[in-house]
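Figure 2 data, in text form.
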Amino acid sequence: QVQLVESGGGSVQAGGSLRLSCVYSKYTTSARCMGWFRQTPGKEREGVATIDSGASTAYADSVKGRFTISQDGAKNTLDLQMNRLRPEDTAMYYCAASFSSGCVVAWVPHWAYRGQGTQVTVSS
């Protein structure tokens, strides 16, 4: 079955860095697209970054130049390196997988699978 488990969240001061990691099951390796999303209480889940099966990446405007998504097929891991963090980056971060075509940096129905999330808190 498809499984995704996130780790690496924590508390950091503004300007600092964190690296999130998502370990996924072998059944997820055929996903066409994987991504990171985030959500704060009372707000809709938003896309952060995606990577497709051809290793093409896409980012939300708010994180471009600060965050980097990467995937290691040998280890079945999806990482998100987050630099120059801001208080507005505070959220629960989720790893997700899609088996549909079309990688979109937005929470749409084709993101059929996601993990339980890891909390990131950035203080000013």
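Caption note: The chain has a mean pLDDT of 95.
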